[in-house]
Amino acid sequence: MSASKEIKSGDVLLELDGIQMSFGRVCALDGISIKIKKGEIHSVIGPNGAGKTVMMNCISGLYNPQKGSIHYKGERINHLKPHDRAKLGIARTFQKVEVFGGMTVLDNIRLGRHIHYKSGILSGAVYLGKTAKEEMEHRKFIEEEIIDLLEIEHIRDKPVGMLPYGLQKRVELGRAIALEPELLILDEPLAGLNIEEVEDMARFILDINQEKRWKITCLLVEHDMGVVMDISDNVYVLNFGNMIVDGTPEAVQKNPVVIKAYLGEEDLYATRK
User: Fold this and answer.
1) Does 3 have pLDDT greater than 80?
2) 134: helix, coil or strand?
3) Average pLDDT over all residues of the chain
4) What are the structural domains, with CATH classification, of the chain?
5) How many helices (H) and strands (E) does the chain have?
6) Cα–Cα distance, 107 to 170 (Å, whole number)
């Protein structure tokens, strides 16, 4: 069931076609098909256990679906490992923050630039000439753009493991956008944040999507319906591994099938009275 507009093939950045993923007798994804349009924010919602994170794992390469195909910029990528997908321009954050606690904020973010380094082992060991120049260019990009965007200048030299959870979330986001992806997968970026931190994170997501310097297409998994409906161009609703609805935020939040999936028959009946 779909309320979304027809998307021209040239506008499609990512396409899932008939994705099937099972674990034993449990079907986590049952023939999922979606099209992610370039330059937009797409959100995936659904009850716990609906298959949202499994879907993100299939896209990023952590899982290999048993059936169906995944196309990125027109290229089938089912066979590619996560690091190869990163080279194509797919970055990701996780439900549980994945940072290197003993390293500084700056060093954590620098790790996201690794695919952009062109210097060889010998020149890197000597650290002269082109290698030093390249390192300075990457550092300038991180310090003047990413750290400034995420407003973390005051903690740039601090070990990430000593920072509050909300700031660790920013660091992980910074590392992901350091890769300069075209597609950024955000798996519950607002989980565990307070109201002020939620507002900040939502603003950062909008900035990297809308500002000319970034224009990153975002695929967001999130439970905060207020933020999802405010910032998304399109919303997909999963329930028990099935795509039950997709469309604009306005259409999705009024859809009785969505209300039923979240609230149940009795509450659905109550909303109609």
Assistant:
1) no
2) helix
3) 85
4) 9-89+181-272 (3.40.50.300), 98-163 (no CATH)
5) 12, 10
6) 14
- Strand ranges of the sheet holding 41-45, from the earlier edge strand across to the other edge: 90-93, 183-187, 217-221, 41-45, 234-239, 242-247
Q: For residue 182, what are its two tokens? A: 């075209």
Gap between the Cα atoms of 225 and 223, Å rounded:
6
Scanning the chain, the segments in alpha helix (DSSP H) are 52-60, 82-88, 105-110, 121-126, 130-141, 147-149, 165-178, 195-210, 225-231, 249-253, 256-263, 265-272
- Check residue 4 and give its pLDDT: 45
- Token pair 């674990």 in the structure block, residue: 23
Query: Which pair of tokens denotes residue 89?
Result: 């321009």
**Gap between the Cα atoms of 197 and 201, Å rounded:** 6
Tell me what percent of the residues of the chain surpass a pLDDT of 90: 63
The model's pTM is: 0.83
- The partner residues of 104 in beta bridges, in order of sequence, read 159
Spell out the residues 6+ positions from residue 145 whose beta carbon is closer than 8 angstroms to its own.
213
